[in-house]
Structures are given as structure tokens and as C-alpha cells.
Amino acid sequence: MNQICKVLIVDDEILVRQGIKYVLDWEREGFQIVGEAANGQEALNSLQTLQPHIIITDIVMPVMDGEELTRLVKRDYPATEVIVLSSFSEFHYVRSTFQNGVADYILKPKLEAGSLLQVLQKTRERIPGLGAAAAGVQPEAAPQRLDALLSRMISGYRLQPEGEEFVKRQLPQDCFSFLGWETGPAGVTGADSNAATAGADNADNDADALAAITAAITGELERTVPGLVQFIIPGGEPNAALLLVNLQEEQWPALLQAVNMLAHALAGQEPELRMTLSRAFGSLSEVAAVYQESVLKLRQYRFFLPDQVLLVHDELPQREAQLPKFNLTQFTEQLKRQQLEEAFGDLHQHVDALSRQYDGDVFQFKSFLGNIIFNVTNQFSHLGELEEGKYGLFRAIDEAGSADGAVRILDHFLARVMELTSSAALTPGSNANMAKLLQYMEEHYAEPLSLTELARHFHFNPSYLSSLFTTYNQEGFKEHLNTIRTGKAAELLRAGEAPISEISSMVGYGDHSYFCKVFKKYTGLSPSGYRRQHYGQE
């Protein structure tokens, strides 16, 4: 019998992984998804255990990207084939991965069943012992396997009559539900990006913790709910598990009680443990719908409800009233008028309410916070620290595992804005702070002072500093510096001690002829004429 082709999916976006898992009837085509990973390090840590024939990997991922993963796979597991997922903008990365032995690539915008299957079949031909299946020799009918059939049903495929009968015999009760648990933030396994060995050790520890939790949960349910049938759904997150439970409808209250007790008892041993229980359903034909509408929704709600150990579909908190749209125009006007306490106070209220909308869209929530940071940074572009740090903040919010974590990033940013605008940093419209600028110029006029140097000293954008001068002074930076220098030169000329050739350098002009030109422009007299006139008036 021909061996089935094992596939590992690697992508940092769970929706992409879900899309790949459910775009094909994998088993029917002679493939089996043996696992998934959120980055290259996770994938590398699982290769020894999963031993996939083919890896489908994204290119741009945190911790370890697809290019590095490909290089290490081809070095340590040369028989394993790699298929790269990419967008048009990442094609230069794809080119470099081909140098490391990539079998093929798929453009994400064209990721659909036909093209994916074609690339998989072509790649399978390269693998010794599997090529015959791809060449038209159909593998012998595999024995019925409950995990494969359930995965197919969750994907929305209808089973053949014999498959349906087999599943019903294995799951004979009249009530179903999904029970899920995870031992850490989604997509995180503790892998150390700086040391592969430490990452492997952490991954092993995570796997051991998950296995212990799984054994405790399944054992306790078997003890407290007699006759319960339970089956682990394969191919989940590395630090998570999903269980399909099958029981008599009248046993549902007992299951709820057992799950509640388990969640709170185990959370005392494993503080990061979080559990979810889907709604109950009475027919296997509802498996795909409940998975989409309850299981995946509960995972999304977890982002906004990170502290609740157990989320039960039918016992969710009351939904908050729909929020009015945030008044970004008013917020921007408050920033321009330096009304930061009012602006940030209104923002805090809105974000707090938004973070309690647990059924909200995670992407939109993160996008809103990122947009606020962009607008604030844009308004205070003269503060170089904010401009330089904004991309790191965008990335941190995008990687935040909870609404609370994302809000803390925003809070720290706003606090820093307040600090920078109320201390050493200058604020538009402040005469006292403008005086600091003018005083600095009075003290350093003899140096090769420029607008760029002054801006760097006060952590300002040069163009902003230029407009600040023209707004709050009758002359611009260069004109004001010339006023100071010619005034100091006039004092020295009146003192009558230093030669004129030396006075030009004493007040900051390296070119004597230029000094004479500027001095005459500002006083109406040449330096020598000014000195003669002064002596003539004595």
C-alpha cells in the first residue's frame, strides 16, 4: 500500500492556516496534515516528532522566518520538501529560498484548491516511495479513521454514507460539544529566538505541560460523566487541544459542572491555562457550523477576556451597548491646541469601553490603536523620539495577545507624549520655551550654529523649528542669528581693541568678506565705517 504524504503548515496567521487546512479534502487526495506552527522555530522543534514529507511555509514570520527555516530544514532534513507561500512583494525572498532547495512556491492571492493540489502533487513526485501515487496509481483505500473523518466534517465536507455510519457508531450519544484548552497565549510555545536548543527545551516543556493537562481533563471527565465519549481533534495549536465530547443530553449539566471544577482546579497549577466550551448540538451534521460559529468565536473572544479561565458559549457576559464612533477630528484639534489631558482622557474612556466589546473584531481594535499612535506622532513630528519609535509600537500592538496588553502599549506611549511635551521638549505657543531657544542662541552664537544643530539639540524636526521661529518671532532662524552676531560685533567694534579681521571669527563668521557684507546689511555701515563713526561720536 502506498504511504500517505504528511504535511506541516507554518504561518503566523491562524486564519491562513485554517484556510489551508480546509481548502482541500486532504485524505481523499492522499495527504494528511500532521501539524501546524506559527513560526519557523516552532516548526523546527516539531520536525523530529512529526516527520512531515512536505512543509508549506510562509516567508515573513516572527522569531524565525521562512527563509531561515528552509535553510535549516534542507541542512538537517534534506529529504523533506518545502513549499513557500508568498505575496508578490516578497518575491526577492522567494528567490533566495530557491537557492536553499525549495520545491515550489504559491502566491497567496492565488491560494485556492486547484493550484494548491497541483503544487502538492508535483512536489510529492519528488519524494521516494510517494511518487507512484502522484503518477496516477491510486493508493489502496485506507481503513476508516475517526480523526480523519472528523477533520473532514469540520472542514464542511460531506462524508460518504459508509463514513457517516462509521462516525455514528463511534459517537453514538445524542449530544455533542467542543471543549478546548490552551496552556499559554495562542501561537506562543516559549521558543527562544536566540538559541535553538533553548527553544527546543521550552517547546518540550510546553508539550509535557499540555499532555499532563490533557490527561487530567480527559481522565476526570471519564470519571464524573459516565458513558461520555471523547475524542481529541488533531492538528491544533502546539500549546492547545480541542476535544469533541459526545454524551446523553440529560448529562449536559453534569458536564458543565465537571468542566467548571476542572478549569478552576487546574488553573491553580497552571496559571496560564484557559478553557472554552462550545454550545451543545444534537447532530453531527452541525459539526462544521458549531466549529465556525462557536469554537472560533470563543477563541476570538479570548483576546478581550484574557482573565476568564473558562469561557462557556451559553454563559458569556452581557454584551456592551454599541459604541459611538470615536471623534478623531475633535481629538486632532485638541492635540493642536495642546489640550492633551482632555484629548487623552476622552481617548482612554473610549478605548476602555472598546476593550469590553468582547465580540468586536480584533483586527479593527488593533488598527484603531495603531491609527491613534500614527495621528499623535504625526501631530508631534518635531519630537524625534516618537517618530523613531512608532514602527516598533505598531509591531508590538500587532503581536499583542490580549486587548489589555495592547492598551498598556498605548498607555505607555501616551504617558511618554505627556512627559516629552511638558518637560524639556518645546511646545508651540509657549513664550517661555521659545525664550530657551533664544537664550541658547545668545550663548552659542560664536559656534558654527545651524538650524539642524539646534533642532538636534532640542530633539526637534528642523522644518518644524523653522516654522516655529517665523510664527513666534519677526524674523527667521538665520536672520535672528545674524542679528545676534552683528550686535555682538558692534559691541566689539565700539570697544576698539580687537582687529576687524579677528572680530568676524569671534562672532561666528569664518569668512571675513561675508561678515562685512552681512554687517553692512544689518547696520547700514561697513565694520570699519561703523568703528570710525563710533569714534567720531565720542
Automatic annotation (TrEMBL):
Domain HTH araC/xylS-type: 435-533
Pfam name, any one: Response_reg
Keywords: DNA-binding, Phosphoprotein, Transcription, Transcription regulation
CDD domains linked: REC_YesN-like (cd17536)
Signal peptide: none
SUPFAM superfamilies tied to this protein: CheY-like, Homeodomain-like
4-aspartylphosphate carried by residues: D58
Chain ranges of the Response regulatory domain: 6-123
Matches recorded under PROSITE patterns: HTH_ARAC_FAMILY_2, RESPONSE_REGULATORY
InterPro entries: CheY-like_superfamily (IPR011006), Homeodomain-like_sf (IPR009057), HTH_AraC (IPR018060), Sig_transdc_resp-reg_receiver (IPR001789), Tscrpt_reg_AraC-type_HTH (IPR020449)
Protein name: Response regulator
Lineage, uppermost ranks: Bacteria, Bacillati, Bacillota, Bacilli, Bacillales
